[in-house]
Amino acid sequence: MKLLILNGPNLNLLGTREPEIYGGVTFLDYFEELKQKFSNVELFYKQSNYEGDLVTEIQKSQNEYDGIVLNAAAYTHTSVAIGDAIKAVTTPVVEVHISNTFAREAFRHNSYISPNAKGVILGFGLKSYELAIQSFL
Ligand code: DQA
After folding, report:
1. One-character DSSP codes across 27-43
2. What pLDDT digit, counting tens, does each position of 12-71 carry?
């Protein structure tokens, strides 16, 4: 099982970014924990602040990964292009969010990812990623 964790804009700042919402752990530290927890899974991690990079990664995932754990961050709420990219490939995508976006501002309640995702996991902090990986097993 080969899974790609794909993170969108500002998630490279986890650990220092709004820690009251996103916690105090960097994603790279958490990724090390994930690799230990899921030693039976080939885990890959990519992050980009650019919408087009995320579209390209989703396109390239076909025949490369068994699934994508996607936190498109703010692009979740704006990106028709990322939603279309998910529709264009057969790779299953599980949408994750660290925070409970429905308990936050109204503009975070819409997702262009959800209608095209296999499932959605949100609001469990970094544990959301773990739950998303488990959903593939
Ligand atoms: C987020 C929620 C988004 O609304 C926000 O723009 C993010 C992170 C989350 O993981 O909780 O950057 O995707």
Report:
1. HHHHHHHHHHHTTTSEE
2. 999 999 999 999 999 999 999 999 999 999 999 999 999 999 999 999 999 899 999 999
**CA 124/CA 108 separation, integer angstroms:** 16
Cα–Cα dist 120/90, whole Å: 17
116 — alpha (psi -120 to 50), left (phi > 0) or beta?
alpha
Q: Is the CB of 6 under 6 A from ligand 1?
A: no
Residue 11, strand partner residues = none
Q: Are strands 67-71 and 93-97 parallel, antiparallel or unpaired?
A: parallel
Mutation pick for ligand 1 pocket among 98, 102, 111, 128 (CB with most ligand atoms within 8 Å): 98
Residue 81 CB neighbour total at 10 angstroms = 14
Is the overall model pTM greater than 0.85, yes or no?
A: yes
**C-alpha 98 to ligand 1 mean position (Å):** 7
Task: Tell me, in angstroms, the distance from the centre of ligand 1 to residue 70's CA.
Answer: 11
